[in-house]
């Protein structure tokens, strides 16, 4: 039964209409940024442009009438996909199609069996992305690594190597436009290189790809039965591979090797559990259900996976906002207006069919494919909110029944409208009624009345339905209604949006509220208790998410974009079973997201109101590590950065400069500055320092590294932390003291060394700008497990040391890391470096770098020291490069060229953190806060705020907090929403 609705004693404060809601500021901002063109400012101005553009396809004497109807359909809830909204009716040479699938052959450039060679496919993909379309590919035709290439008498490098070429091309094309070029890479489960593919993104490779494994029914049966599978390809193996057991089957395919299916499945599941990729596509289910099973084979999907497509197939998408069809929301009389919904769906079908005529096609083959089959994808958005407004809890059977009914209405309206269009304009050229309406495919299961109509009138579109993610279009056009088929992720969150240089830089904050939650508060007031129907995605079981997909899927002819978000502590066995059950339920694929420390480390907990001090405690036993007791956990430190990375400043920025005069010569010191905005403007003054650098041939070696690491400290919202750093540099002594003139009067002061002198000048400028004022937040200071360097008792402590030899500069010294043990909640310990130092022949400026990094090491969040060390890896210096061993955990012995002594030292420190299990070898966190302790439960009511979660780096704020939510990228730190829908 449905969840209880409102207390009958409550009455609405205003009419039960979404139109009565004032607009959210974020909606207007997203509209202007993403979709409005020229002088457009209002929703209806964008809608009218789109309506006119699509009505141009109609007969001249009908265009005015269809413009009115298309505008009306949009006002009543139809939202065309983002590409249509942003480009239709403009002079842009951009496609109106969101995504494509394009074929990739095995040759380098030759067309074989109608499939373009690899570099021809790359050119086609680049052209498609240049015009704004994302691309999916099946790379299974490419021969395995090591296979024989007879034409060149060489060995193949395998599909993953070519995926890297596509990845870099996408990155290059992306830089030329505002929209990121999304890609999906698919490889069949029986390809010999499948294991390399599964792990291709483990170390951060292929950043411009989503990846999915194409899984067959035969493979799944082998998994369940404990059997082995053959990894096969048409390409001839090398002699070495033949000698290792490769053989040719009767069907002509070569079996490169056999492997237990369960072992391969476990690799897929483990990688997905740890990295959120690869996804899984059930290829046989996709093709068996395909309306055009008789004339095409599908092997890949578009990047968000809601459209399995043949070569050159396209996603022509649009969604209907379900919240606009709920009458008398939240009341016992709440109901869904089925008749109006069906009317809007019918008009929307015609609009999407017209898109196929109105759009420019990046490639002729795409246009030909679209004309032959006329695929479109009508879906809905706002299901989660609509169910709340109908007093139905998302995880209840009545909610699933309502979703089934809505999906059935959409199916019948779209197929009926397409049959009417076929009678008016003609059926798609490859339509064959006998084959189309039989064979166990989707169309064969349509109601008999619809089948009779289709047989009599034909069908305009081979496929009509797809539930896609609606990220930014939901924000701009649907008052942030819940995305697609999803429940609301949260009822409110703060969006921190980066401002352009023309706007003064920095960030602007917006309160972003869910539509249903806003409407409820608007109608009943802030104090009214929420009904039980208000449930968010993270409050639901994973099985509840999957059950909703299973309820709706029988009514959708292509696919559904649905991300099952599970908590970090979700058991692996249950996680793996989700995919097995999805296959058993007949689903076409599944995508999950589990926040974890492999993807990135984040902590989002409220610190104690009055933090207790962190006290060192000597541990019993001679020679044992000193231990510190951690009394409280801070917030994630990376979130405290005023500028997460160097701001993008195409117009440049002001910088204050000063000549540092020391005994060995002079060099210039620069302090980069930016205008302060928001609360910073009043607190700190008009401008703030955000970086320092030195320039000149006489600068001491190693000083540039000091400036580089100090620059990130300037970007924190913590004046006390910056003072602590500058204090640490003030006493760095070198061979001899010297006097140097200081600003503003040029009065001489005695300094123990050039690092101290440089720090003094930086301090003077920071004080002038008001960046060192007392008071204000101290997020980095609060995150330290020890402000002072932990001192040893007479029992001593352990340390890690390594020798560094740079023959190019004559340096030979020892790097030493002092370490301390921190307790875990389970009673164990974790070892962390707490200070570093050098002894021997080394540039004395490195003492300054050591003091800075020692303080960084005592910040609990390991993302902080990891970020500092990664930024030093590319520090170069003239004639300072040298060859040295590459540190690694697997015992591999190899050497490489390092750009400087500093870069090599940074790599060694990262390696020690990797040895301790705190960072990986790339300097990214492996454990939360380095204490092996999970975040505390949020104190706020469920769903009332987004809690930061571990994820990938966010392009907006730089935090490793971007997760995959509702088919879109979503940053749980700043609220950034990626391009989708």
From TrEMBL:
**Per UniProt, which keywords does this protein have?**
Cobalamin, Cobalt, Deoxyribonucleotide synthesis, Disulfide bond, DNA synthesis, Nucleotide-binding, Oxidoreductase
Name the chain's protein.
Vitamin B12-dependent ribonucleotide reductase
The source organism is: Roseateles asaccharophilus
Q: What is its EC number?
A: 1.17.4.1
SUPFAM superfamilies, alphabetically?
PFL-like glycyl radical enzymes (SSF51998)
Q: Which residues form the Ribonucleotide reductase large subunit N-terminal domain?
A: 25-92
Q: Catalyses which reaction?
A: a 2'-deoxyribonucleoside 5'-diphosphate + [thioredoxin]-disulfide + H2O = a ribonucleoside 5'-diphosphate + [thioredoxin]-dithiol
Q: Which CDD domains match?
A: RNR_II_dimer
The coenzyme or cofactor needed here is: adenosylcob(III)alamin
- Identify the domain of life: Bacteria
MF term (GO), any: ribonucleoside-diphosphate reductase activity, thioredoxin disulfide as acceptor
Q: Name one GO biological process term.
A: deoxyribonucleotide biosynthetic process
Per its UniProt record, what Pfam families does this chain match? Ribonuc_red_lgC (PF02867), Ribonuc_red_lgN (PF00317)
- What range(s) does the Ribonucleotide reductase large subunit C-terminal domain occupy? 98-593
* Stored NCBIfam families: NrdJ_Z
């Amino acid at each position: 039964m449905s969840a209880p609705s409102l207390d009958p004693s409550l009455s609405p404060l205003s009419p039960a209409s979404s139109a009565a809601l004032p607009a959210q500021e974020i909606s207007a901002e997203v509209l202007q940024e993403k979709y409005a063109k020229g002088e457009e400012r209002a929703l209806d101005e964008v809608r009218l442009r789109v309506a006119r553009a699509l009505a141009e396809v109609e007969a001249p004497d009908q265009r005015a009438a269809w413009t009115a109807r298309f505008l009306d359909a949009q006002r009543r809830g139809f939202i065309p996909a983002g590409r249509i909204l942003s480009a239709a009716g403009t002079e842009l040479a951009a496609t109106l199609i969101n995504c494509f699938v394009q074929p990739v052959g095995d040759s380098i450039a030759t067309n074989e069996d109608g499939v373009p060679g690899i570099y021809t496919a790359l050119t086609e993909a680049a052209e498609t992305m240049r015009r704004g379309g994302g691309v999916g590919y099946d790379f299974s035709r490419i021969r395995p690594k090591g296979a024989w290439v007879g034409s060149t008498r060489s060995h193949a490098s395998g599909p993953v190597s070519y995926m890297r070429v596509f990845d870099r091309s996408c990155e290059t094309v992306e830089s030329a436009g505002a929209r990121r070029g999304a890609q999906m890479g698919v490889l069949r489960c029986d390809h010999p290189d499948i294991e390399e593919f599964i792990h291709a993104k483990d170390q951060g490779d292929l950043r411009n790809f989503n990846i999915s494994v194409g899984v067959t029914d035969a493979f799944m049966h082998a998994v369940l039965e404990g059997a082995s599978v053959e990894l096969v390809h048409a390409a001839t193996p090398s002699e070495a591979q033949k000698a290792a057991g490769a053989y040719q089957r009767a069907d002509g395919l070569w079996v490169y090797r056999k492997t237990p299916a369960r072992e391969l499945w476990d690799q897929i599941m483990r990688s997905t559990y740890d990295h959120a990729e690869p996804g899984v596509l059930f290829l046989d289910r996709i093709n068996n259900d395909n309306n055009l099973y008789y004339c095409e084979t599908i092997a890949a999907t578009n990047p968000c996976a809601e459209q399995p497509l043949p070569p050159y197939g396209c996603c022509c998408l649009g969604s209907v906002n379900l919240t606009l069809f709920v009458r008398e929301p939240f009341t016992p009389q709440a109901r869904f207006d089925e008749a109006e919904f069906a009317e809007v769906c019918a008009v929307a079908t015609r609009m999407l069919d017209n898109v196929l005529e109105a759009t420019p096609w990046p490639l002729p083959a795409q246009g030909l494919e679209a004309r032959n089959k006329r695929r479109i994808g009508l879906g809905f958005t706002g299901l989660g909110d609509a169910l709340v407004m109908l007093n139905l809890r998302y995880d209840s059977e009545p909610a699933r029944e309502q979703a089934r009914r809505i999906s059935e209405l959409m199916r019948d309206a779209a197929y009926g409208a397409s049959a009417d269009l076929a009678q008016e304009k003609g059926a798609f050229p490859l339509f064959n009624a006998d084959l189309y309406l039989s064979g166990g495919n989707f169309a064969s299961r349509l109601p008999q009345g619809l089948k009779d109509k289709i047989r009599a009138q034909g069908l305009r579109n081979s496929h009509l339905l797809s539930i896609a993610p609606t990220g930014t279009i939901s924000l701009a056009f649907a008052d942030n209604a819940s995305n697609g088929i999803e429940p609301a992720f949260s009822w409110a969150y703060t969006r921190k949006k980066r401002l352009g240089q023309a706007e003064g830089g920095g960030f602007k904050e917006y309160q972003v509220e869910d539509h249903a939650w806003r409407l409820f508060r608007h109608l009943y007031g802030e104090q009214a208790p929420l009904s039980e129907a208000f449930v968010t995605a993270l409050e639901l079981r994973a099985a509840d998410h999957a059950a909703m997909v299973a309820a709706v899927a029988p009514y959708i002819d292509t696919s559904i974009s649905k991300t099952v978000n599970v908590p970090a502590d979700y058991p692996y066995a249950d996680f793996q079973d989700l995919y097995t059950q999805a296959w058993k339920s007949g689903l076409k694929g599944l995508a999950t997201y589990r926040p974890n420390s492999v993807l990135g480390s984040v902590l989002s907990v409220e610190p104690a109101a009055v933090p207790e001090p962190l006290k060192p405690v000597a541990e019993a036993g001679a020679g044992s590590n000193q231990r510190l007791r951690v009394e409280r956990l801070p917030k994630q430190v990376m979130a405290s950065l005023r500028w997460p990375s160097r701001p993008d400043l195409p117009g440049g920025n002001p910088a204050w400069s000063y000549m540092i005069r020391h005994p060995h010569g002079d060099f210039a010191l620069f302090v980069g500055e930016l205008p302060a905005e928001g609360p910073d403007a009043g607190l700190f003054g008009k401008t703030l320092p955000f970086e320092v650098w030195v320039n000149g041939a006489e600068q001491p070696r190693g000083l540039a590294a000091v400036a580089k690491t100090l620059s990130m400290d300037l970007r924190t919202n913590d004046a006390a932390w910056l003072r602590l750093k500058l204090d640490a540099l003030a006493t760095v002594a070198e061979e001899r003291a010297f006097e140097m003139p200081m600003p503003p009067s040029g009065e001489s002061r005695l300094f123990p060394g050039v690092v101290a002198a440089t720090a003094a000048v930086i301090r003077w400028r920071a004080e002038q700008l008001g960046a060192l004022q007392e008071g204000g937040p101290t997020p980095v200071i609060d995150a330290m497990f020890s402000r002072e360097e932990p001192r040893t008792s007479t029992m001593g402590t352990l340390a890690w040391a390594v020798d560094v030899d740079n023959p190019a500069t004559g340096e030979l010294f020892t790097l030493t890391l002092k370490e301390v043990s921190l307790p875990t909640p389970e009673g164990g310990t974790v070892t962390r470096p707490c200070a570093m130092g050098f002894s021997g022949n080394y540039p004395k400026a490195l003492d300054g770098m050591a003091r800075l990094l020692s303080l960084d090491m005592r910040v609990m969040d390991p993302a902080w020291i990891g970020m500092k060390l990664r930024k030093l890896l590319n520090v170069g210096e003239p004639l300072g490069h040298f060859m040295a061993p590459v540190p690694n955990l697997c015992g591999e012995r190899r050497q490489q060229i390092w750009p400087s002594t500093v870069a090599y030292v940074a790599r060694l420190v990262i390696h020690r953190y990797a040895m301790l299990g705190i960072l990986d070898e790339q300097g990214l966190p492996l454990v939360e806060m380095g204490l092996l302790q999970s975040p505390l439960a949020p104190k706020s009511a469920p769903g009332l705020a987004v809690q930061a979660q571990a994820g990938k780096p966010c392009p907006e704020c730089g935090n490793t907090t971007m997760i995959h939510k509702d088919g879109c990228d979503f940053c749980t730190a700043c609220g950034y929403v990626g391009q989708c829908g």
